[in-house]
Design brief:
Arc Repressor Mutant, subunit A; Transcriptional regulator, ArsR family; Oxidized Rhodanese, domain 1; 11 helices; 3-stranded antiparallel β-sheet; elongated; DNA-binding transcription factor activity; alpha/beta; Rhodanese-like_dom; 16% strand
Length: 229
């Protein structure tokens, strides 16, 4: 077998090393729990630096650094909005990359299951509903759908017909809910607890409630209808 040239140039080991180091730039950028969390957050819609910092419980300075690393790898892009800088995912492919990375970790890394259980708690009392079944129920008028994410995320895009009912406002939303129809709550994805808390609160109030098995990004990525501003 012919050996690759150790000198620079076409087909050389030096050039191949440089290529794969360049490809690994994306992996290096995501190699931080906070940056992974930022990508997860931005799948819900664009945010200012301050809004991202508040959501991930970090200082604005630390958050800005993380965003700059992600931007340097081409994963996010920014736009100035008055005095603020707003960030969004660079493309739908970035959302796909994050979802694939998350799913592989869940399937291949044993520790992730324990960590997820520690964060999410026991979901044995929560009945999930699939995306196809939810769309069928929306079309037939068999369910009321609640988007329990923060209102900013709802306004960035939501499932058609869904009502905005952030957890902090859920008690007020109950008064307008009919009791003779199923209620389905959804939030950010499989590792979001908003819908879990909403379903438990709805059931305690006497509603027949369940949660979407994952969340809005998965619904959108599957090509199902979305309402945007």
């Amino acid at each position: 077998m012919a050996r690759q040239s150790e000198n620079g140039g076409v087909g050389s080991r030096v050039a191949k090393n440089a290529l794969f180091d360049g490809l690994a730039t994306v992996a290096k950028a995501i190699a931080s729990g906070r940056r992974a969390e930022i990508l997860d957050l931005l799948t819900q819609g664009e945010r200012s630096v301050e809004q991202v910092a508040d959501a991930i419980d970090q200082s604005v300075a630390n958050t800005s650094h993380h965003l700059q690393v992600l931007a340097g790898a081409g994963l996010v892009e920014s736009q100035r909005d008055g005095q603020r800088v707003r960030y969004r995912l660079a493309s739908a492919r970035v959302a796909e990359l994050w979802a694939a990375m998350r799913d592989v970790a869940a399937q291949q890394v044993t520790e992730v299951e324990r960590l997820a259980s520690a964060y999410l708690g026991d979901r044995g009392d929560l009945e999930g509903i699939g995306r196809a079944e939810l769309e069928r129920r929306i079309t037939s008028g068999e369910a009321v759908v609640l988007d329990v994410r923060p209102r900013l995320e709802y306004e960035s895009g939501h499932i058609p017909g869904a009502r905005s009912a952030p957890l902090a406002e859920l008690d007020d939303a109950l008064a307008a809910l009919p009791r003779d129809i199923d209620v389905v709550a959804y939030c950010r994805g499989p590792y979001c607890v908003f819908a879990d808390e909403a379903v438990r609160k709805l059931r305690a109030a006497g509603y027949d409630a369940r949660r979407l098995e994952d969340g809005f990004p998965e619904w959108e990525r599957e090509g199902r209808p979305v309402t945007r501003p």
